[in-house]
């Protein structure tokens, strides 16, 4: 998969907060933002899968 450019305009305070969070993890701002987006997408997909599974009458963990 190739990379593309995404340009965002963010408030100075928000950017500084993102920089601090990234620095605590030893990451660049770019890596931190990408990983955050990937994690958020996973969380949403996981929750959706759980919801769909419950609609089928399956409970997790199975008892």
Topology:
Elements: H1 12-24, H2 29-55
Helix pairs in contact: 1-2
Terminal CA distance reads 41 Å
Beta strand % = under 5%
SS element count, helices:
2
Helix fraction bin: 55-70%
Major β-sheet profile: none
Strand count: 0
Sketch the topology as an H/E string, one letter per element. Answer: HH
Structural class by sheet pairing and helices: mainly alpha
- Pick out the low-confidence regions: none
**From the alpha-carbon coordinates, what is the Rg to the nearest angstrom?**
17 Å
Give the overall silhouette. elongated
The residue-averaged pLDDT reads 83
Structure description:
- 63% of the residues lie in helices and 0% in strands.
- The protein is built from 2 helices and no strands.
Give a short overview:
The protein is mainly alpha-helical and 63 residues long. 63% of the residues lie in helices and 0% in strands.
Features:
63 residues; mainly alpha
